[in-house]
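queue> holo job accepted (manganese (II) ion)
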Amino acid sequence: MGIEQTEYRQRREKLMEKIGNGTAIFCSAPTAVMHNDVGYIYRQHSDFFYLTGFNESEAVAVLAPHHKEHRFILFVQPKDPEKETWTGYRVGADAAKEEYGADEAYPITELDEKLPQYLEGADRIYYHLGRDEAFNEKVLSHWKRLILTYPKRGTGPVAIEDTNFVLHPMRQIKSPAELEMMRKATAISAAAHNRAREFATPGKYEYQVQAEIEHTFRLEGGMGPAYPSIVASGANACILHYIENDRQMQENDLLLIDAGCCYGYYNGDITRTFPVGGKFTPEQKAIYEIVLEAQSKAIEAVRPGKAYNEYHDTAVRVLVEGLMNLGLLVGDIEEIIKEEKYKPFYMHKTGHWLGLDVHDAGTYKNSEDSWQILQPGHILTVEPGIYIAPDIKPAEGQPEIPEKWRGIGVRIEDDVLITVDGNEVLTSMVPKSVEEMES
Ligand code: GLY
Ligand code: MN
Ligand code: MN
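queue> job finished
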């Protein structure tokens, strides 16, 4: 399983069709240092990976559809047997042509010398100004030089356009091969959640549950966690990105686990919340049922042709109705929603695009008041929640929250593929009914 070289080529061809006489430049992700000369595990930039499948740092990919000889050019770290003994295998320029389908490949040390020939005949440069400031400067300085010489040559790039707007719409629609990768990433994530639910009992520590989850990720061939695993018991569940995972779990705790596996660069993202001791308290159950209902109604709103914001709006309405029924919000429902008086309980959106990035590429809006329309091949998360922090501050005019509700945090998150006639929940193998959460 995996993405074939032919698919990477098709992606490049499609991008080149879109950029016409432009030249696109993509830079690899920088390496990140943990301390001194010890680095973090390398993670390629998803745009770069999407177009090349190439997983090394200090690389640059150039697409120059108008160039007479070379349309796809790679700059890579040169072969260096001595360095490779220390820091690992490098593909090198020769194999980059053969194995990655580049028309030409050069050592990265030759970038400044070789790049101009691919820019001079372009009518614009496509480049995303990213976090690598040094590389941004390099691209801009090449462009400035070409602008200065334009009057004498009469050709050259007259503008820089952001690659996001041409590449990300492509990344948003998953191909059959990508969908297979997503199925694998979500299946491993699901297996890890099911294992965690069996394993978690009062007296164990959150990090022990984390270890079970991440053990499953690797055991099943995943690269590891798609993002830092959140294993949050009791009131920790009210901290959205809690990752300390060091508390000992108690009999009456809920445990919120938000964890997903990265498989071949594609990501799962699942949240489940269940009672560690096997039985919800009445208050926990009441909150859980509202969130479950909100999630189920929101999933129904995830269909082709629907605007992106609809499933969030659906979830918010169900959450607000539920909280009103419990007396935790009071007043006029339309006003509560319009003035966002539910926000002390629900402060995030109901999901995000999912794929090569956990918060995947692509816009949510087409203009100030027009949302993206859902299409077959999109994948998104549906993840409503209610968080009643121990020190929750109600919105103006809303009641103080009685003690018995405080410290409850619930989120339920699934990964959903939009299909031709509706949707498919890719993570349906993880149960979520009240009965199943108690068993
Ligand atoms: N775990 C990250 C998210 O749910 O967005
Ligand atoms: Mn999540
Ligand atoms: Mn998510």
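queue> Residues 173-437 form a domain with the Creatine Amidinohydrolase fold (CATH 3.90.230.10).
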